[in-house]
Design goal:
Strand content: 35-45%
Number of helices: 1
Helix content: 10-25%
Strand order of the largest sheet: 1-2
Distance between the termini: 30 Å
Shape: globular
Largest sheet: 2 strands, antiparallel
Number of strands: 4
Oligomer: single chain
Length: about 80
Amino acid sequence: LQPSIRTVVNKLGEVGGPYRTYQMDLLAGEDDYFVRVIEHGVSLFFDLRNVYWCTRLEGERTYMIENEFKPNQLVADAFCGVGA
């Protein structure tokens, strides 16, 4: 494991509820679900049990930053989960 990895979980079932969360099973490590993610120079800190986060969408976020967003443009996505 990477030294920064403290907890390993398995996603159970489907995403659901008002915050699009999911049940998870602790596979290894600490019983601690607070996550720090650094993406595109932005540091995010959140409790994975309470918010939606999908690492597989990083490619889509990169594409939007590199190809769609313009300098000084204000972008709002009411459904984006963490990182709004």
